[in-house]
């Protein structure tokens, strides 16, 4: 038999107004072997559970799977517990029940509890827990959704969240989302009920689908506990309408790794409270979009780290804080960071310690970068490669070194204004290129370009004013170039090649980057250019000018398949014009498996496709198998229906899904 699976399933809300008959009878699964939920002889009362049952237990010995299939009825229940004795596993598997016939649990407190040895699997099925003061509690064990939906939320919606999904309260537990839709009022990983369980470990793995958290998402909520999130696909959304700071390391040790997936979150703390540790890593094609504060090391005693290693970090409205009141560091080795401000230990408190390391990739800031605080806090910056741009179209962005050392060995830094007027700040300019429009340096030391060995360039941009109160030194193997007015003495051991004679035609120093986003997400392209002012911009889509797109950045607010293609920008001034290389926008659109044809020992799976996207068919022979197996080769979307054969479908059943890259 061949089973076909869709990547995205619809969700039908279920509202239950009452509990119906008196809920008092306890009913147990008594069969020591696997079987169907609907067969009455498998249960202690000789009938399948219904609303009349109080507590439903699947807890007896022997490893088994209890299957709810499409024939099941009476799935509105009160209270369900899954666990197993040592060495055994009891799995409740919902297979092809459909999302319009959900398993609904109504009891107060914890209507669904999963303990050690218990597991829940959903494929093209739905679980609903709604109301007030209810929830999903996974003390230990596993919850896996391949497709369908899981909804655990307050009904009606409220800012005073009472419905919570807790993963790992006493031991190790996991939540695995491979497709479908999950919505929680609050999702907490690693949440010990007391000091007697100080080492609980909650893991969430996500390879596809959509996770929507209406309130708080907390990874490692309790002291001593660990929370881990591994995203290799899919999207996490946290709407910005509750008091809902996402915490990666709240009181425990929290870590999140994102690749080929997207985070859309308003307010994030990576390392929030005293004694905690938080880590967020954006790996290849991992996208994090935050429209409120990103605090790395939020409060005193907290430690946080954010690593961008091939991914893209975007903040839209508020700053990135590296060491806000605790210890925080931002490390960029590849990929990109785009935002308004980066504040490194900029809060006036003696508990803040911040660091920023740029070794590759690009960082683009439209307002400012502030290092340290002039009175108390001290931060550190190391530029080892890559590009750092602190600029905007009004030429008002500021690079302010208030307290602490900045070391630059390589790479390129471009800023509208460089300010360093406190003795506690140092700019150790050993190599690389510094491009600056205006400068004010008065920290008690001459500003020295180069270390006498490595190549270093100070480029004056736009004809601005550069004040060096304690003088400017151009070391051997260093160069002063560009156009501007220098106030202060100059000692030259290298090369001075300034040129202010005529308009400088535009040149692109940071071209727009290609982006991959999920359907409905925002995609922002930005460019950094040089040349005499004023610079004019015109963005184009597939070589056609976009009306009104005349700034240094352009945003596709809600990306759809029709927005996929090439984006470039033409920059011009009185000296000429230049076009950027095109950046490609790829929009990952969910596909639907619409047909499965079985012929002897092969299956052929047909599905819809989008031009340019890569589709890989994956399979499992058993739903509780740990991994999905690729069927190669992958195929590229044409915009029409595609088919992928599975020539080795010789087993009695096989489950399929599509991975879209």
Characterise the protein shown here:
The chain is mostly beta strands and 661 residues long. The chain is 0% helix and 54% strand. It contains no helices and 62 strands. Strand 51 and strand 52 form a beta hairpin. The radius of gyration is 29 Å and the shape is elongated. The model is unreliable at 1-23 (pLDDT under 50).
Write a short abstract of this structure:
The protein has 661 residues and is mainly beta.
Task: List its salient traits.
661 residues, mainly beta, Immunoglobulin-like, 43-stranded parallel β-sheet, six-stranded mixed β-sheet, 0% helix, disordered N terminus
Number of helices: 0
Number of strands: 62
Provide the helix percentage: under 10%
Spatial extent as radius of gyration: 29 Å
Structural class: mainly beta
Percent of residues in beta strands? over 45%
Low-confidence stretches: 1-23
Instruction: Categorize the overall geometry.
Output: elongated
| Average pLDDT over all residues | 89
> What is the rounded distance between the termini?
29 Å
How are the SSEs placed, and which strands pair?
Layout: E1 25-28, E2 35-36, E3 53-58, E4 64-68, E5 76-77, E6 79-82, E7 90-105, E8 112-114, E9 118-131, E10 135-138, E11 141-145, E12 148-154, E13 164-167, E14 172-177, E15 181-184, E16 187-189, E17 201-213, E18 217-219, E19 226-237, E20 246-248, E21 253-258, E22 262-265, E23 268-270, E24 277-282, E25 287-290, E26 294-296, E27 303-315, E28 320-322, E29 327-344, E30 353-358, E31 362-371, E32 378-383, E33 387-390, E34 398-401, E35 404-408, E36 412-420, E37 425-429, E38 432-441, E39 447-449, E40 456-460, E41 465-468, E42 472-474, E43 478-482, E44 485-487, E45 490-492, E46 495-498, E47 507-510, E48 515-518, E49 523-526, E50 528-530, E51 536-541, E52 544-545, E53 553-556, E54 565-573, E55 576-579, E56 583-588, E57 593-599, E58 602-608, E59 614-620, E60 629-636, E61 641-646, E62 655-660
Parallel strand pairs: 1-3, 2-4, 3-6, 4-7, 5-7, 6-8, 7-9, 8-10, 9-11, 9-12, 10-13, 11-14, 12-15, 13-16, 14-17, 15-17, 16-18, 17-19, 18-20, 19-21, 19-22, 20-23, 21-24, 22-25, 23-26, 24-27, 25-27, 26-28, 27-29, 28-29, 29-30, 29-31, 30-32, 31-33, 31-34, 32-35, 33-36, 34-36, 35-37, 36-38, ...
Antiparallel strand pairs: 47-50, 49-53, 51-52, 51-54, 54-55, 54-56, 57-58, 58-61, 59-60, 59-62
């Amino acid at each position: 038999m061949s089973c076909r699976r869709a990547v995205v399933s619809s969700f039908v809300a279920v509202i239950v107004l009452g509990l119906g008959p008196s809920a008092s009878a306890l009913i147990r699964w008594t069969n020591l072997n696997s079987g169907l939920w609907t067969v009455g002889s498998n249960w202690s009362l000789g009938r399948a559970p219904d609303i009349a049952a109080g507590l439903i237990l699947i807890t007896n010995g022997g490893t088994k799977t209890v299957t709810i299939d499409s024939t099941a009825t009476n799935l509105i229940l009160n209270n369900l517990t899954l666990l197993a004795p040592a060495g055994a596993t009891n799995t409740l598997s919902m297979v092809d029940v459909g999302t319009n016939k959900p398993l609904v649990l109504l009891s107060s407190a914890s209507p669904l509890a999963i303990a050690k040895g218990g597991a829940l699997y959903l494929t093209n099925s739905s679980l609903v827990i709604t109301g007030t003061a209810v929830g999903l509690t996974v003390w230990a064990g596993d919850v896996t959704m391949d497709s369908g939906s899981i909804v655990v939320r307050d009904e009606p919606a409220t800012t005073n969240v009472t419905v919570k999904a807790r993963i790992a309260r006493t031991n190790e537990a996991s939540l695995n989302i491979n497709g479908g839709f999950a919505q929680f009022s609050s999702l907490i990983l690693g949440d010990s009920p007391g000091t007697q369980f100080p080492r609980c470990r909650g893991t969430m793995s996500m390879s596809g689908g959509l996770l929507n958290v209406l309130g708080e998402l907390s990874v490692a909520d309790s002291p001593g506990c660990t929370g881990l999130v591994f995203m290799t696909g899919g999207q996490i959304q946290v709407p910005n309408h509750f008091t809902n700071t996402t915490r990666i390391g709240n009181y425990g040790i929290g870590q999140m790794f994102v690749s080929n997936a997207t985070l859309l979150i308003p307010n994030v703390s990576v390392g929030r409270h005293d004694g905690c540790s938080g880590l967020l890593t954006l790996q290849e094609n991992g996208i994090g979009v935050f429209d409120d504060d990103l605090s790395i090391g939020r409060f005193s005693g907290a430690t946080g780290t954010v690593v961008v290693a091939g991914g893209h970090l975007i903040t839209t409205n508020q700053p990135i804080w590296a060491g806000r009141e605790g210890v925080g560091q931002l490390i960029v080795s590849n990929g990109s960071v785009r935002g308004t401000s980066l504040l490194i230990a900029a809060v006036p408190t003696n508990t803040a310690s911040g660091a920023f390391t740029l070794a590759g990739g690009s960082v683009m800031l439209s307002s400012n970068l502030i290092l340290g605080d002039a009175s108390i806090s001290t931060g550190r910056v190391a530029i080892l490669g890559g590009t750092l741009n602190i600029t905007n179209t009004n030429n008002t962005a500021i690079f302010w070194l208030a307290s602490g050392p900045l070391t630059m060995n390589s790479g390129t830094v471009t800023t509208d204004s460089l300010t360093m007027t406190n003795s506690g700040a140092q700019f150790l300019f050993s190599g690389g290129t510094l491009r600056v429009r205006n400068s004010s340096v008065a920290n008690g030391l001459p500003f020295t370009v180069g270390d006498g060995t490595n190549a270093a360039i100070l480029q004056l941009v736009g004809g601005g004013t550069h004040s060096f109160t304690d003088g400017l030194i151009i070391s051997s193997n260093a160069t002063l170039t560009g156009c501007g007015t220098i106030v202060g003495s100059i000692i030259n051991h290298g090369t001075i090649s300034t040129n202010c004679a005529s308009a400088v035609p535009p040149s692109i120093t940071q071209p727009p980057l290609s982006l991959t986003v999920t359907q409905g997400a925002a995609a922002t392209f930005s460019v950094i250019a040089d040349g005499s002012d004023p610079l004019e911009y015109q963005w184009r889509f597939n070589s056609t000018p976009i009306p009104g797109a005349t700034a240094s950045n352009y945003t596709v607010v809600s990306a759809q398949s029709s927005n996929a293609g090439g984006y470039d920008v033409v920059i011009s001034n009185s000296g000429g014009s230049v076009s950027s290389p095109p950046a490609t926008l790829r929009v990952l659109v969910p596909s639907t498996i619409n047909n499965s044809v079985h012929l002897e020992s092969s299956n052929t799976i047909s599905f819809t496709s989008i031009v340019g996207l890569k589709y890989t068919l994956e399979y499992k022979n058993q739903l509780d198998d740990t991994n999905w197996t690729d069927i190669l080769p992958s195929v590229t979307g044409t915009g029409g229906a595609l088919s992928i054969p599975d020539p080795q479908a010789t087993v009695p059943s096989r489950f399929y899904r599509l991975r879209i890259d």
